[in-house]
Each structure stands twice: as C-alpha cells, then as structure tokens.
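> call design_seq(struct)
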C-alpha cells in the first residue's frame, strides 16, 4: 500500500453518511436523519406493487380474485400499501445507520480530560474524524450544536439546556417524518370503504333490475342474481384487503416509532453521560470581583 493510500485509509471516517446512507448509495438525495426521499420511496413502492401482482399470478384463484377484476380500488390500495412498506424499509435502514453513532466515543475517556470552552475544538476535531458530515447524524449534530454554543458563549451552564432543546427539536423532526405514512394509513381504509359503497351500489342496482324483471323465469333470474352477488363480493373484498393492509402497516409503523424513540432516548443518555457529566468550570474561568 502506497503512502497516499495509507493516508486515505487513516483519514476515512468510521461512519460515512455518503457511503452508508441507502439513498446516497442509490444516487438519490438523502433525507436528513431518518427522513426518506419521497421519489425513491414512490419508485420502490411501484416495484413492490408490481412484484406483488406478479406473485399473485402464482397463487390460488381465491386470493387473486380479491385483487383483480374488482375495479380500481384494490390497485390503489396495493399501491399505497407498497409505498408505505418502502418508506418503512428505508427508515429502518437509516435508523440502523444512526444507531451506529452510539458506539463512537467523541470525548477522550481518560479522567484527566475536562470539557471546557478551551477543549471544545479537540472534541469537534474528534467528531470530524468519526463521521464525515455531523449534520446528517442525530447524535453528532446535537453534540456539535451544544459545543458550538459552549465555544462561542463560554458558559457551561447553558450546555444542558441546549441539549434538551435540541432533543425536543429532534423528536419533532422524527415525528414529522411519519406524516406521509400517517396519511396513507388514513387513506387505505377510506379506499376500502369507497369500495364497499361502490360494491353495494352495484349490488343494489342489479337487485333492482332483478326485481323489475320478476315475472321472468328462474333461468333468466339466475344470471342477474350472480351480478348482485358480484357487487357484494366487491364490497366485502375491497374492505377486507384495505383493513388487513392498514393493520399490518400500522403495527410495523408502531414498532419502528418505538425503536426510533428508544434511539432518541439513548442519544439523550449519551449526551448526559459523555458531555454534561464531563463539563467543568476551571478555576481561571471563574468570575472574579475586582476590588474597588
């Protein structure tokens, strides 16, 4: 290995957002923290939906008929469900990358080190060696904001308050990243109810036709009754599919939100243990009162 290659290896951060973020790897603009690129998730949802319908061709007719020949409702439901699955998958990958920061040590471990306005640059340089873009990592961004305030104002008492304020901001960002998913979870059952109304409308319309031709023979009424039952099938099948998809996505989102909240709690604990507890006001920094 040449001297240049050795320096490149030594300068390479332990976690690279540009090489580890799944969206960057797929040449899409990476969303900050655990936010997901909308275009990438939409295209992935189209792919997942196409694969789903491809697999239906291999399945039994009893299942396939619930997703085809039932109008446009099942296709829209599958698309929103597939889009939701794509968002959840990418968020899970991004959250897993963010968790890796908890294994890094940004403050020197030896007990003689004191975190103060004079030693802030040392910690910031260490963060720069650990990650390539601290703004893209929840934990590193939180620490850098607090340390920048400590360096500029020189008041260690403000660091804990800033960390708490940034923690609240991170929680708000995390919550907002689920807005699209929440909208889909609202829309999917609504699509099922729309399918129910359409199916019942078809069934009632066909039933009215059957009643209008009641003087016909039984052989003429049987085909019309099949159309009535077909409308009822659309009503119940579309609702069943929508509710099942909504339940699965809701459970998956709940577990992911729980995992992300635990990660944010771990970040707060990390900052308390490695930043707040290492703060010291050195003797020469203490305010002095000049004698009059």
């Amino acid at each position: 290995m040449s001297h240049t290659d050795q320096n490149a290896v030594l300068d390479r951060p332990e976690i690279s957002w540009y090489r580890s973020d799944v969206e960057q790897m797929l040449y899409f603009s990476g969303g900050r923290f655990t936010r997901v690129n909308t275009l990438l998730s939409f295209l992935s949802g189209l792919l997942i939906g196409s694969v789903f319908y491809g697999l239906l061709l291999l399945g039994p007719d009893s299942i396939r008929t619930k997703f085809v020949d039932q109008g446009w409702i099942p296709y829209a439901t599958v698309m929103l469900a597939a889009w939701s699955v794509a968002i959840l998958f990418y968020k899970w990958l991004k959250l897993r990358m963010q968790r890796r920061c908890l294994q890094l040590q940004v403050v020197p471990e030896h007990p003689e080190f004191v975190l103060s306005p004079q030693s802030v640059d040392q910690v910031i340089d260490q963060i720069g060696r650990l990650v390539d873009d601290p703004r893209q990592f929840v934990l590193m961004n939180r620490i850098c904001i607090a340390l920048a305030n400590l360096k500029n104002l020189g008041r260690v008492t403000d660091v804990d308050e800033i960390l708490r304020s940034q923690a609240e901001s991170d929680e708000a960002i995390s919550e907002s990243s689920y807005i699209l998913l929440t909208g889909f979870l609202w829309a999917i059952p609504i699509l099922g109810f729309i399918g129910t109304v359409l199916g019942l409308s078809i069934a009632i319309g066909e039933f009215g036709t059957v009643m209008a031709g009641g003087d016909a023979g039984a052989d003429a009424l049987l085909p019309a009754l099949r159309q009535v039952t077909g409308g009822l099938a659309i009503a119940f099948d579309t609702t069943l599919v929508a509710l099942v998809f909504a339940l699965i996505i809701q459970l998956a989102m709940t577990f992911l939100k729980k995992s992300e909240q635990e990660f944010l709690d771990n970040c707060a604990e990390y900052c308390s243990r490695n930043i707040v507890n290492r703060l010291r006001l050195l003797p020469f920094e203490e305010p002095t009162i000049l004698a009059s």
